[in-house]
């Protein structure tokens, strides 16, 4: 699967946030986006998933060469796109299991057998070091910050997307949990080879999962591209040298 973003401009409430983003993510590739608070990273993630608040004013988003600009979110998910939110929402009364199974059936377009589903689920719950009682709970309701983030990695493990965008999968996680989450993301990367677009502020998680490409976003533009050495340099030097630089094309 291939996701292409071409000169994407996105506005929220009439204000331009993304000012020409170009990016290409293929199955099996690990991309990382870093950048200062408010630079537009979450906006890019939400625009790719078709969040109604984010208006694409120009540019193109393509999956395997076909434009998804006018597709609704559920159709994008059916194509194999997945978004882990920076701040997952809580939904009371919706059981985690039934939510996930319904999502999987909708995406796969066929019934999902309960036995295999639960086996896969239990395996992933254990590997994410979440308690078994997790299975009976409402979606994100009363989950701790770390549990919410793990629950989203669990969703990714179950849904097996072709391209996944992870918005700060490490935020709010304790030191051990970062390692567990990174190992589980690596496990998914090794088994189903999704293209990964990981947004993060911290290089700790990158120590466990070497990125193929690192992109730096500043003020709605990608201002630098590199490999994992770029994230190491950012950790030492910060973003100052990139602020008020022009944009570059990226892949
Ligand atoms: N719904 C909204 N209404 C108005 N402005 C918004 C909305 N969503 C985002 N913005 C603005 O868009 C800009 C980019 O926000 P975004 O959340 O994409 O940043 P970010 O790079 O993800 O930052 P962080 O690292 O803090 O998560 C910010 O100035 C933000 O205030
Ligand atoms: Mg954000």
Textual characterization of the structure:
The protein has eight helices and ten strands. It has 251 residues and is an alpha/beta fold. β9 and β10 form a beta hairpin. Helix content is 36%, strand content 26%. The strands form two sheets. A six-stranded mixed sheet has the order 6-7-8-3-9-10, sandwiched between helices. It has helices at 41-49, 73-79, 96-108, 114-127, 145-159, 175-192, 204-208, 228-237; strands at residues 2-12, 15-26, 30-34, 54-63, 66-67, 81-84, 163-167, 195-199, 213-218, 221-226. It is globular, with a radius of gyration of 18 Å. The structure holds adenosine-5'-triphosphate and magnesium ion. Residues 12-13, 17, 35, 37-43, 53, 86 line the site of adenosine-5'-triphosphate. Adenosine-5'-triphosphate is lined by residues 12-13, 17, 35, 37-43, 53, 86.
In a nutshell, what does this entry contain?
The protein is built from eight helices and ten strands. It is α/β, with parallel strands linked by helices and 251 residues long. Helix 5 runs parallel beside helix 6.
Spans of at least 5 consecutive residues with low confidence: 246-251
Please state the CA-atom Rg, rounded to the nearest Å: 18 Å
Instruction: Kindly report the spatial arrangement of strands forming the biggest sheet.
Output: 6-7-8-3-9-10
Total helices: the number is 8
How many strand units? 10
Question: Can you lay out the helices and strands and say which pair or pack?
Answer:
Layout: E1 2-12, E2 15-26, E3 30-34, H1 41-49, E4 54-63, E5 66-67, H2 73-79, E6 81-84, H3 96-108, H4 114-127, H5 145-159, E7 163-167, H6 175-192, E8 195-199, H7 204-208, E9 213-218, E10 221-226, H8 228-237
Parallel strand pairs: 3-8, 3-9, 6-7, 7-8
Antiparallel strand pairs: 1-2, 1-4, 4-5, 9-10
Helix pairs in contact: 5-6
Residues 41-42, 86, 167 line the site of magnesium ion (MG).
């Amino acid at each position: 699967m291939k996701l292409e973003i071409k000169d994407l401009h996105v506005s929220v409430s009439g204000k331009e946030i993304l000012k020409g983003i170009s990016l290409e993510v293929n199955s099996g590739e690990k991309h990382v986006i870093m950048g200062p608070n408010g630079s537009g990273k979450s906006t890019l993630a939400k625009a790719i998933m078709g969040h109604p608040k984010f208006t694409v004013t120009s540019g193109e988003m393509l999956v395997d060469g076909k434009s998804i600009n006018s597709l609704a979110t559920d159709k994008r998910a059916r194509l194999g796109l997945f978004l882990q939110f920076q701040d997952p929402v809580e939904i009371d009364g919706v059981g985690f299991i039934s939510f996930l199974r319904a999502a999987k059936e909708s995406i796969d377009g066929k019934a999902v057998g309960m036995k295999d589903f639960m086996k896969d689920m239990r395996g992933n719950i254990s590997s994410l070091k979440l308690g078994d009682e997790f299975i009976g709970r409402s979606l994100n309701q009363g989950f701790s910050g770390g549990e919410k983030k793990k629950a989203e990695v669990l969703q990714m493990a179950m849904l097996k997307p072709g391209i996944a965008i992870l918005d700060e999968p490490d935020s709010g996680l304790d030191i051990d949990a970062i390692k567990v989450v990174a190992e589980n993301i690596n496990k998914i990367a090794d088994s189903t080879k999704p293209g990964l677009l990981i947004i993060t502020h911290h290089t700790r998680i990158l120590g466990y999962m070497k990125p193929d490409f690192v992109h730096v976003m500043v003020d709605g533009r990608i201002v630098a591209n590199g490999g994992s050495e770029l994230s190491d340099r950012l950790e030492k030097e910060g973003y100052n040298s990139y602020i008020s630089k022009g944009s570059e094309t990226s892949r």
